[in-house]
Design a protein that fits this description.
Blueprint: H1 12-22, E1 31-37, E2 47-50, E3 55-60, E4 81-86, E5 92-97, E6 104-107, E7 112-115, E8 121-125, E9 130-135, E10 143-149, E11 154-159, E12 164-169, E13 175-180, E14 185-190, E15 195-200, E16 206-211, E17 216-222, E18 228-236, E19 241-248, E20 256-257, E21 263-264, E22 273-278, E23 284-289, E24 294-300, E25 305-310, E26 314-322, E27 325-333, E28 341-344, E29 349-354, E30 381-386
């Protein structure tokens, strides 16, 4: 998963598919019910709700010191840490010092938390919020997505370059083994009964099905031209249905109108899609348009809704009307850059996060892409979304 980066200079044409998707249902039951400008500096990726402990975990990465220039003051170095918030009030409870990474997760039974830190995985105590140890994995391992599975009290950490998952014992903090996933892994979900599903970020999207008892992949479900560049995955465990949130799909996009009022020719543009498939045999049930390129997904079995969050500041809600019937229920405006999410399945609330950004600097004199829009100091914000 990518770090939080927001780019403002995007061609209008590339926004057209997302705008058309939003028209499917902009009104709906969900709204932003709380916005907490909690501040703090450092890059982020995943956000994690510990439902049992009623806490929200967000990794914040190291900020390097920058000397003063003629136009900007000096900036002190800020060490990496894990910020821990109250899940109800979003007040800061404390921070785990010295560790960060792409994401965090918690094993409630052992009281141990883990982060997909670089180059190792870090373990900390959830009561004292103190680091316990760093755990080395195989050479080339680059921690990214992270998942806790209560079924066997293990932690799964996904690595892009090695195309595998490394498994950690949550109680002892030791490496149990690795699983070859056959592709570039992103988000994973577990059914709580011994099966793990992992969505692949490859150009041709797919899901790998894993038997956690044997620690082996047992099936690969390709999407064909239905979806690629997939970052989010959610599971309806009762009905055995997967929701893969993908950034692109094949096929011509609908005709668009040009600035002169004349229709533009159809183009091969990426269309973000929610690919909905059987968790048993991988057959695709349907696919629905998303309001933006996804970087996270979740499913709430209490409401039978799947959620996908996007960097363009939207959240798509997909309603499961039956195991064979689905519809886009709502496209909610959130916050630009709020591309990852977590679900509190006790309250049904969704949490996203982002920063405010200033204007982007001009491109270099010779042309090409200029630097990205700078984050406004102290603007890091958590949004609570609910009905």
């Amino acid at each position: 998963m990518r770090r939080h980066v927001v780019v403002f200079a995007i061609a209008i044409a590339s926004f057209a598919p997302a705008m058309q998707a939003q028209q499917a249902g902009t009104d709906g039951p969900y709204k932003v019910i709380k916005s907490a400008r909690v501040g703090g500096e450092g890059g982020t990726d995943y956000i994690y709700a510990d439902v049992d402990g009623r806490r929200l975990y967000i990794t914040r990465n190291t900020v390097r010191a920058v000397p003063a220039t003629e136009t900007a003051p000096a900036r002190d170095a800020i060490p990496g840490r894990v910020s821990v918030f109250n899940l109800e009030t979003l007040a800061l409870i404390g921070e785990v010092p010295g560790i960060a990474g792409n994401g965090a997760t918690v094993d409630s039974k052992s009281g141990h938390g883990f982060t997909s830190n670089h180059p190792d995985v870090s373990m900390f105590d959830t009561k004292t919020l103190q680091p316990l140890k760093n755990i080395k994995a195989d050479s080339g391992f680059a921690p990214d997505g992270i998942l806790q599975d209560a079924y066997n009290q293990r932690i799964y950490v996904f690595s892009h370059p090695t195309k595998n998952a490394t498994i950690f014992d949550a109680k002892e903090g030791t490496v149990v083994g690795t699983i070859d996933l056959g592709g570039v892994p992103e988000q994973g979900v577990a059914d709580g009964k011994g099966t793990l599903y992992v969505v692949m970020q490859d150009a041709q999207g797919s899901v790998t099905k894993v038997d956690v008892n044997t620690m082996k992949a047992v099936a690969h479900f390709p999407f064909g031209d239905k979806g690629g560049s997939c970052n989010g995955l959610a599971l309806d465990a009762k009905n055995h249905i997967l929701f893969a949130a993908c950034g692109a799909s094949g096929g011509l996009q609908p005709a668009q109108m040009g600035a002169n009022g004349q229709p533009l020719p159809q183009r091969q543009l990426p269309q973000p899609m929610m690919v909905i498939l059987s968790a048993d045999d991988g057959h695709i049930i349907t696919s629905l348009p998303l309001a933006g390129g996804s970087d996270g997904a979740a499913f709430n079995p209490a409401t039978m809704e799947a959620f996908s969050s996007h960097s363009n500041g939207t959240l798509t809600v997909v309603k499961e009307k039956s195991p064979t019937s689905f519809e886009v229920e709502q496209n909610l405006q959130t916050m630009l850059g709020a591309r990852t999410l977590t679900l509190d399945n006790k309250t049904g609330r969704i949490f996203v996060m982002s920063v405010e950004r200033g204007p982007a600097p001009p491109p270099p004199p010779g042309g090409g892409r200029g630097p990205g829009a700078p984050a406004i100091p102290g603007s890091f914000t958590i949004l609570m979304i609910g009905k």
